Amino acid sequence: METGIDRKAFRDLSYGLYIVTSKDNDKLNGQIANTVIQVTSKPPRVAVTISIENFTHELIKKSGVFGVSVLDDTADMKFIGPFGFKSGKDIDKFSNVEFKKAVTGAPLVTERTLSVLEAEITNSVELGTHTIFIGNVVNTEVLKSGQPLTYQYYHQVLKGKSPRNAPNYVPPE
Predict the structure, then answer these.
(1) pLDDT by residue (tens digit) across 11-24?
(2) What are the structural domains of the chain?
(3) How far is CA 154 from CA 37, 79, 116, 171, in A?
(4) How confident is the model over 82-102, as pLDDT tens digits?
(5) What is the reported pTM?
(6) pLDDT of residue 4
(7) Which of 3, 19, 126, 148 has the highest count of CB atoms within 10 angstroms of its CB?
(8) Is the pLDDT of residue 169 over 60?
């Protein structure tokens, strides 16, 4: 551990839990992410942070687009698992989930989802292990009302773990 830094403090930052998606021609992929934020209102822009080791990163870079599904608090570990702990290079993450193709062609998960949005990349910032992709929002849709799934709920109630490629991963002691 770095001197003076307790990485568990980062878990006290407030996050939601989202499925970030992208595509490359007919190949679709998505992953769980907790780092999705609105960065401007006019024009509407959002940013996502994705590990450079993840297949979703490769697809976002190739296509220049990404989608975001805002999960509701009924999402359980069985639903989250394929998007959080499996690679889209090895499995079809969309074979057992409801989704639709968006205006940009990116898939948008609609099951256990409050709302969806999609964006076209305007800028990106390389951060060594991760890239922040900033995009103009080109389409949104509210699917239903409910409570968003938070990262705190994921850890405390669902007993979920942070994968090694998550920005706030804490290695076992």
Answers:
(1) 677 788 999 999 99
(2) 14-156 (2.30.110.10)
(3) 18, 12, 20, 18
(4) 988 778 788 888 999 999 999
(5) 0.87
(6) 79
(7) 19
(8) no
Backbone angles phi, psi at 144, to 5 degrees: -170, 170
Number of H helices, E strands in the chain: 3, 9
Identity (one letter) of the amino acid at 123?
Answer: N
DSSP code of 16?
Answer: B
Maximum distance among all alpha carbons in the chain?
47
d(CA 5, CA 65): 35
Number of Cα atoms under 13 Å in the Cβ half of residue 114: 15
Contact 87, 104 (CB under 8 A): no
Rg (CA), the chain: 15
CA separation for the pair 104, 98 (Å, rounded) = 18
Q: Are 78 and 111 in contact (CB under 8 A)?
A: no
